[in-house]
Design a protein that fits this description.
Helix content: under 10%
Order of helices and strands: HEEEEEEHEEEHEEEEEEEEEEEEHE
Distance between the termini: 67 Å
Number of strands: 22
Strand order of the largest sheet: 10-9-12-17-14-15
Number of helices: 4
Length: about 425
Amino acid sequence: MLLTLLLFVSSAIAATVTYDFNVTWVTAQPDGFSRPTMGINGQWPLPHITATVGDKVIVNVVNGLGNQTTSLHFHGLYQNGTPHMDGPVGVTQCSIPPGGSFVYEFNTQQIEQPGTYWYHSHDQGQYPDGLRGALIVNDPDSPYKDEVDEEIVLTLSDWYHDQMPGLLSHFISYANPTGAEPVPNAALMNDTQDLKITVEPGKTYMFRIINMAAFAAQYLWFEGHTMKIVEVDGIYTEAAEADMIYLTAAQRYSVLITTKNDTSSNFAIVGSMDQDLFDVVPGDLNPNVTGWLVYSESAELPTPAFVDQFEPFDDFTLVPHDKLPIFENPDYSVQLDVKMDNLGDGANYAWFNDITYVRPKVNTLYTVLTSGDLATNPEIYGPHTNPFILEKDQVVEIVLNNMDPGKHPFHLHGHAFQTVVRSEEEA
């Protein structure tokens, strides 16, 4: 009996998962064009970070780039109790200088967040140069665990041939007064093109899908197969069937796909960048990336069928699996009016409530921790940071008005919000 008890206690103790990351330059050519790319430990694509609910995660980061600072953000994890591990430079930490190091440590049990996430640099718009990868928190108690035979991580991304410092310098400059975003050169699937995923008949696969793009949203569909959505951005949902989904930059879905019993044919997986986001579509741009569900190595890899219009699943109709009711009677309401406009330097900037963000000289979290009773005074955070001072356990309503003609995805660090109302376009 004592041995049984010891075994039980041992199994209940969470593991410590440690990753040693040396961020360096490597050369990659995922679409055939060779360019310098930010890799880890001399490799690219980057390794996945994988943990289980309750594990302690330690990521030892060394900046071996030589010519740029960096940081890591673990996108979607709330970091409750560990906000100093969140990674945004100027908000929760200083940049990791060339030759410097930083240890990220957090405990997934504390935040109880199973699901599909990703990690990326949060310094100077840097991650599109390659510093981004999948982060998966496994859940032994998933409500869908009995339906899944195997899991597959599927990443989508846009890809640029030029490096970010030059692209960003031109993007926010007098030479680009309309604020036209740089258009990607290609779309990628699992950081490559012509991806082949071998599947077996009659099995149910959970695809953990992550859009790691800098800019481009993508439509995604699996020809001849229906997706069953079970998770969005780390939140389990009631199962919902979809033929096509739309993933904005940084968005994640988990979907179940049950394969056919017939193995005589293979089927295309298609990602297509949303060209409505591009001010000008280059004539030589291929907005699509194709992979295949491979049932048979001897069968052909079919050309995807032409799609004359995109009809993605409406994610506003998803229902959370936990049936959490809508919060009522908000204690505080924040209205954010979003627009793009020019300053006196002729460059185009993004604005919240007629304020464009300027990074404070002292990281915001450091100011919070060192200012004593003044921490609740919004003026100490600088005139260009749009600070809102909240109290613990308040219910906060955010009203987000997009005054710009373009589409803009938004996410909120440290929280999951309930989407309550969505207006019609041009409302």
